[in-house]
Amino acid sequence: MPLPRQFNSDGLLPVGDYELTLQELRSSMLVVGPQPALLDWDMDHRRYLVDQLSILVDQLWQEGTKMIRTNAEYKRALDTVRENRARAEMERAALAEEGFDTNEITTLMEPILSFHAQIADEVTLYERARAGEVPAVERVTDLGYTLIYARIASGLSQRDLADKLGVDESVVSRAERNEYHGVTKERAQRILDALDAKIRVDVDPKPPVHTAEEAPIALSLAAADASSVHTAESHP
Questions:
Q1: CB neighbour burial string for 159-194, b if at least 16 within 10 angstroms, e if fewer
Q2: pTM > 0.70
Q3: Given its phi and psi angles, is residue 127 left (phi above 0), alpha (psi -120 to 50 degrees) or beta?
Q4: Which of 11, 55, 124, 163 would you label with 63, given CA atoms 20 to 30 Å apart?
Q5: 58 shares a domain with 97
């Protein structure tokens, strides 16, 4: 729905979804303020927030926070991490020069730093996988991540795995881009065999919760069992 020209009587926007381009957002009343203008309206601060949002959207469009699967992607991610660090330092300096204190700078930069941290985390996961560490998953539906990290840990490229499977490299590349969504157990095992890898499944069931009435019964049974064992040992 279109953005209203004014806030409601409570100083809020009506509940709803508003679709705006970044340019429309910059010129909207959310940034330039309502009319008549309010004395305490900080338009410069709001413009800065939109500028930060623009940077974040641009990086998401170019890089996203996708899993790193190849050495080429790893090198691009490293470049992005270095660029992000340099940009963050420049932003900190610019905000300090404008008079923002440390807490305000931290609040303003939190969204974009959080995104930067996600890319850095993906770099770390890839580096650990290359060192032979395959991260554990807690859901069967995340098996695709295990297969990808297992290939990386095995030191094989996508082409190497494709050769072992007797398929074109594009088949492996496409499957990994989709994180092996919907992979059958037979195909997963074939990939593991090609990697000379095994998986271990640890089931950690949630302990049963006994009610107040059930607890004494459980204790009584345990005592009776112990008594039976003692009796059996006393009388061979």
A1: ebbbebbeeeeeebbebbeebbeebeeeebeebbeb
A2: no
A3: alpha
A4: 163
A5: yes
